[in-house]
Input
Amino acid sequence: MKFVRFLLVVLCCGALVFIVWRLRPNPDARVLAWMPEIRTAAAEVDLDPYLLAGLVYAESRGKEDAVSKVGALGLCQLMPPTAAELAQQLEVSGPPYSPADNLRMGATYLAKMLKRHDGDVDLALLAYRLGPTALARQMEAAGGQRAWLQDLQARSPSPWAYRTQILEARQRYAKRFQVVAPHPSSQS
Output
């Protein structure tokens, strides 16, 4: 009889763990819930919305109240000085900034990084992650862009994995919406 009780307790606990596991928040679902706002923000700066969605996935997993260890905030994980500069440029009030405004500012910043790097998505994403000044300094210290990128790809962990995570999420979201999504660097 004790064994039967024990077995029932184990089965009930297992069922409870399974239910909790199945109901846990799904990062992709959180990001996809923001797609209307992501599309709007991306359209304002002529940015691929799935690239922005991939960035949101990598930066915050779709959590609007995300705060990083270094103080980056929101869906797009903007550092407060960058957010303040972008807010002034876009005439956004805050802080705090609404999730839609955080997306607008993140889209604007990513578009700025793309323009700064002549549409090179890899460099733009790495500049978003590291900061444009740090990126330039690291490339120079490595002896140029090619040497730096090779070194970056060989390291683990590396900001290159961040770039890969964004592009993989971009592909998932584009596929979900049945959009043919070539690598963004092949777009003009």
Remarks:
- Residues 23-113+160-178 form a domain with the Lysozyme fold (CATH 1.10.530.10).
- The radius of gyration is 20 Å.
- The chain has ten helices and no strands.
